[in-house]
Amino acid sequence: MKTDDQDRAIEISLKPSEFTEAEVRKTTASEKLELDTATGEFDTALSIDGNILRLKDVYKEFMPMLKDTLDVSWRIAPIAFLPAALLLWSYLKSIHWTSLFQSSAMTGSGLIYLFVAAMLLAVATVLQFALPSAMLIGTLFHYRLDRRIPRAVARLYRWAMGGWLLGFVIIIGFDSSQAWIICALTFASAWIYALTRRDDLELRAKPNRWRHISIFYSFMFAGATMTTMCMTSVPLLLVLRITARYVDGGLLEKLIGFGVCLGTTVISLLPGYMYMNARTWKVGAYQPTKFALLGTLLLSYVVLAGALTFLPVSTTVLRLAGVYSNEMQTFEVLQPNLVSAANAAGLSLNDDGKLTLLRAYVRYDFGGTRLLCNKSFHAETVTNEAIKFARERKMPDPGIIAGAGCVQASTTELRSLRLSM
Fold first, then answer.
1. Side-chain half-sphere exposure of 411, counting CA atoms within 13 A
2. Residue 357's beta-bridge partner residues?
């Protein structure tokens, strides 16, 4: 049996051990706190360094892309003058005054001025055409940039376009106004493909997940695809409104209408499709974005060239650029030799002995050359149909009438006046 002295000795020997354990626990907790603080500061520093590195990577990716874009734009810049020159020449040809083209339009400053005016008007049109591609790129941009998107996604959009065009065939063929048919066929085509190709689209449910989640994902994919295709109706409304001025029914006109729908859909989705196809074989944002910018450049040029081809748009461009006006204007004649030519053309002249005033309609004003006429003129009336109708009835050509009773003058021979009312 243990004595009291032995118990007291054991108790005394245990006290230092308990004291040492408490100190160890306290020291360990303090060191752990310091270690956690240091680790947090280190993680924060790593996070900041990581963000800086990502910014550097983005800079390295997009600076070459910007350089390539500017280089391509500079190389094709001379081509951009072609629509502006074509617009001027077509207008002068319609009024039978093509002789003014050489003296007024073949100047660099003149073409730049008209091109800028045309671009300001066409920018709204370009934005309308770019909306579907913006929707498509925005949908795909959220997919991880460190992975390639499945090729089945590109095929999904092609199936949706097939349903979209089939809906237009039904609408145009049966003269129906039920636009919902187009959206329904687009959604059905996309959903059927998404359901049958869930593995290719990587939509299969993972283990321990709701087994019908893939059907829900397919539904969402089809909805996003249908929304993108329906966005093409924005430029289509503009194009069909212009086309309606040139067609009036019949089988040929229906075929033309379908061709217009097909061309508009393809053009408006071109940048988006180029981005999507690039994402199927390239990881990262540089190459896909570069292809999207190239597609946007092609889209802008096609839309601009097409817009300037149609008379309702071209005459508006001419008015905004100050090339054509259908309002009576007053000028002071600075060169006396212009008076006899103006009298011969039937222009209104008023000479009070001090000033010689001339009142006329400005049919053409560009590059330092003016064409002044004695009658008003609506450029929209000189159409191919009107010329054909006049020839069949053996009536005067509307274009010849528009260019009759006019006199050419330079800016050094006239001074514009704005008289008080």
1. 8
2. 332, 350
Is the sign of the CA dihedral 279, 283, 284, 286 positive or negative? negative
Where does residue 43 rank: exposed (0-12), middle (13-18), buried (19+ CB within 10 A)? exposed
* pLDDT tens figures, 225-239: 888 888 887 777 767
Unique residue bearing structure tokens 């039937």: 346
Please report the DSSP string for 319-381 in residue order.
Answer: HHTTS---SEEEEEE--THHHHHHHHHT-EEEE-SS-EEEEEEEEEEETTEEEEESS---GGG
Tokens standing for 249? 């029914």
Listed residue (97, 135, 356) closest to 232, CA to CA: 135
If residue 406 lies in a helix (H) or strand (E), which one and from where to where? strand 406-410
Other Cβ atoms within 10 Å of 318 Cβ, number: 22
Q: Using CA atoms, how far apart are residues 125 and 146, in angstroms rounded to an integer?
A: 35
Neighbour tally for 186: CB within 10 Å: 26
Handedness of CA 216, 219, 223, 224 (dihedral sign): positive
What is the token pair recorded at 229?
């295709």
C-alpha separations of 11 from 7, 8, 276, 280 in Å = 6, 5, 80, 77
Q: What is the pLDDT of residues 283-316, one digit of tens each?
A: 877 778 778 877 877 787 777 666 655 655 567 6
- Three-class SS state of 407: strand
